[in-house]
């Protein structure tokens, strides 16, 4: 599936969902007096979707990859802070929500990794470099590969 806007990306949507839930989590009274922890958790959560969006809009595959890895790093940062919260006594009543948020952050991390892996194998340099000639060449390669795959499915007849 081809996405034209970052808002259509399932991983961006998951990142926004995680950020919304983090903002609700830190509204809990247990975060009172722990502003640095609250702020860092919020910034890391927001960084995920922002870096996906920025990379998507940059126009080159290499820049997108760079921003995807930054987003993935932010997802790891969120998970690390959530693990800390699980271990601190003031947040025990939030244990279930923290666990759910950790799972969502892990899922986002896996999605970003899979996307980055697929981009690293791509011969397309990005939207910025897509001329009509490059599009036609890519389409020809895609059709040729599909044709060869179809030939492989045809049983050979021995004489």
Description:
- By secondary structure, the chain is an all-alpha fold.
- Helix content is 72%, strand content 0%.
- The chain has two domains: 6-122, 23S rRNA-intervening sequence (de novo design (two linked rop proteins)), CATH 1.20.1440; 129-159.
- It contains five helices and no strands.
- It is elongated, with a radius of gyration of 21 Å.
- The model has no long low-confidence stretch (mean pLDDT 89).
Average of per-residue pLDDT values: 89
Strand content: under 5%
Q: What is the CATH superfamily label of the largest domain?
A: 23S rRNA-intervening sequence
Helix % is: over 70%
Query: What is the top-level CATH class of the largest domain?
Result: Mainly Alpha
Assigned CATH architecture of the largest domain: Up-down Bundle
- Morphology: elongated
For the CA atoms, what is the radius of gyration? 21 Å
Element order: H for helix, E for strand: HHHHH
Reported for the largest beta sheet, the result is: none
């Amino acid at each position: 599936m081809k996405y034209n806007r970052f808002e259509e990306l399932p991983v961006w949507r998951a990142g926004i969902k995680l950020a919304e839930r983090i903002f609700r989590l830190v509204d809990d009274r247990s975060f009172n007096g722990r502003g640095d922890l609250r702020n860092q958790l919020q910034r890391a959560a927001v960084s995920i979707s922002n870096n996906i969006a920025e990379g998507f809009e940059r126009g080159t595959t290499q820049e997108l990859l760079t921003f995807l890895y930054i987003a993935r790093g932010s997802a790891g940062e969120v998970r690390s802070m959530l693990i800390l919260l699980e271990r601190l006594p003031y947040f025990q009543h939030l244990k279930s929500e923290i666990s759910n948020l950790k799972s969502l952050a892990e899922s986002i991390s896996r999605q970003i990794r899979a996307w980055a892996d697929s981009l690293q194998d791509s011969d397309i340099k990005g939207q910025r470099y897509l001329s009509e000639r490059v599009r036609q060449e890519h389409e020809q390669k895609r059709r040729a590969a599909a044709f060869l795959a179809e030939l492989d499915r045809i049983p050979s007849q021995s004489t």
